[in-house]
Amino acid sequence: MQLPEYESQRLERSPLVLVAAQISFEEVGREVTHAQARSFQRLMGDGDWTQLQSAPLMSATMTPAGTVTEPNRQAYRLATSDGGWGLLMNPDSVAVETRSYTSWPDFRAVLETLIAAVAEVFDPATELRLGLRYIDQIPLPDGYADWSKLVHESLLGLTADDRFGGSVLASDQRVMLQLDEDVRSVLRHGLLPAAEEGTLGQYLLDFDVFREHRPFSAESAIQGADKLHHFVGRLFMACVTPELYAWLKG
C-alpha cells in the first residue's frame, strides 16, 4: 500500500471520541480471580486506578432442545478515579480504553504498564490478537456545505454524487485492508445522521488495526503497538484532505 507518511502531533480540534487497545491470549483459566484482579490493579497503580468491580461474563448456547445458559464466569472492570480510563480483564484478554486521549506517548505509557501486568499476572504463551482502535467523529467545519474538500473522494461515494443532490442523510461502509504481511485493518467510515434537521452531521472514521497469532512477549507487544499506531496515523492521513487536516491542527 502507498499510504501517506505520518508524524504524530496534537490536533487542536481533535475529533477523537474513543481510543482503545486490546491484547487477546489463550484462556489461562475459567475466570479471573479477585487476587489476580487486585494484583493487576496494584501493577497499574492503585493510587490512580481506584475503581475495581466484578463484571461477570454471561453466555448462552443454542441447542436443538433450546437455549442453554452457561454459568457466569468472573471478570473484572478497573477504572481511574476520574472515570477517564477503563480496563476490562477477561480470562483470555485485557482491554483498555479512554475518552480522554491526549497523545500517543501518554496512551503508550498506560499500554506498556498494562502489557507488563498481563505478563506478570496471566503469563500467557500466545498473543492471539493485538489491536488498536481509534474512533473519530469529525464535525463539518463552519463555511463548508459538504465534505467534498475535506474527505478523500474515494470514500465519499454517493455523498459526492451530484445526481443525489445532497439527499444522502447517512452512510456506513466497512472495508478490510491488508496493510503489510502482519497487519490488517477494518476501516469503518461514513456520514453520521445529523442531530438536527438541516445540518450535515459528522463524518465517522473508525480504525481497528491489528495483528494476530505469535508467541507472547511484553517487548514484542509494545513494539507491535507502536507499529499499529503508525498505521492508524497513515490511514487517517489517507482519508482526510490536507485542507481538513490543517483545520484540525488549528
Summarize the structure.
With 250 residues, the chain is of the alpha+beta class. Helix content is 25%, strand content 32%.
What does this structure look like?
By secondary structure, the protein is an alpha+beta fold. The chain has a domain at 16-27 and 125-249. The chain contains five helices and eleven strands. It has a nine-stranded antiparallel beta sheet, with helices on one face. It has a two-stranded antiparallel sheet with strand order 3-4. Helix 1 runs antiparallel to helix 2 (104-121) and helix 2 runs antiparallel to helix 4. The longest helix has 22 residues, at 218-239.
Strands of the widest sheet, in order across it, are: 2-5-6-7-1-8-11-10-9
Write down the Rg: 21 Å
Q: What is the averaged pLDDT score?
A: 90
Distance between the termini: 29 Å
What structural class do helix, strand and pairing data support?
A: alpha+beta
What summary fits the major beta sheet? 9 strands, antiparallel
Low-confidence stretches: none
- What portion of residues is helical? 25-40%
Share in β-strands: 25-35%
Report the strand count.
11
Order of helices and strands: EHEEEEEEHEHEEEHH
What is the helix tally?
5
Shape: globular
